[in-house]
């Protein structure tokens, strides 16, 4: 069966090194032509000055690497904080995105007041919808694409809550960035099998890392319980044309960042390409 699908690899460069040139040198060696910019030189993308952003732009141009998306921290903030804080952050990120030639910005769905358990998170879904609707309205006015990532300790952590949020916002400027490992780490089993029917129509970006249900440890694609191969097949059959952004977290899996190093990123890229070949995508 022929497919119209097209997969393009990207990667979180700050998982390789702090220095942007070091990040991009390895991406060139690995023949990965795109960067998801979360940070460089130890500076989060949201905190970059105009001078920093200009330096990113020039360094990427020097290495022939294009920015696929901004891995922003918007929505990794308390649900009870004023939304004006995050709309201001988003407006700054939109300026940065325009300078760097991307219109895709990752966002999250906010920390509930109590993250000791997610048993009560359903009661916060309406608040998350309200806040993300405000962000999506800003994005729509600026012709920017927000992609909502599922994440532990965030309102949108499970398949069901991500679906509730996306349907509740109901704005084409908020789509979904599927992260298999993050679903596994909140105890979701058979995540693609169960999640695709609810979330498949919303997917416009994919983060690639895997995880084990047994202990939550982060794995390379295909080595855990995230059904990454099944996800790739569904994407292929749906005619997905977009990015697979490697976020391996193979050395450090922090809540706001991760690190894999040269060896870890190299391994993660090799395993993803191997899995893509096995799944014929």
> Structural class, please?
alpha/beta
Number of helices: 9
Residue-averaged pLDDT, rounded? 95
Global outline:
globular
What percent of the residues sit in helical stretches (DSSP H or I)?
A: 40-55%
The CATH topology is TIM Barrel
The CATH homologous superfamily is termed Divalent-metal-dependent TIM barrel enzymes
The total number of structural domains is 1
Strand content of the residues, in percent?
15-25%
Beta-strand segment tally = 14
Major sheet, described briefly?
8 strands, parallel
| Low-pLDDT regions | none
Terminal CA distance: 11 Å
| CATH class value | Alpha Beta
Rg, alpha carbons: 17 Å
N-to-C series of helices and strands? EHEEEHEHEHEHEHHEEEHEEEH
Placed side by side, the strands forming the largest sheet appear as 5-2-1-12-9-8-7-6
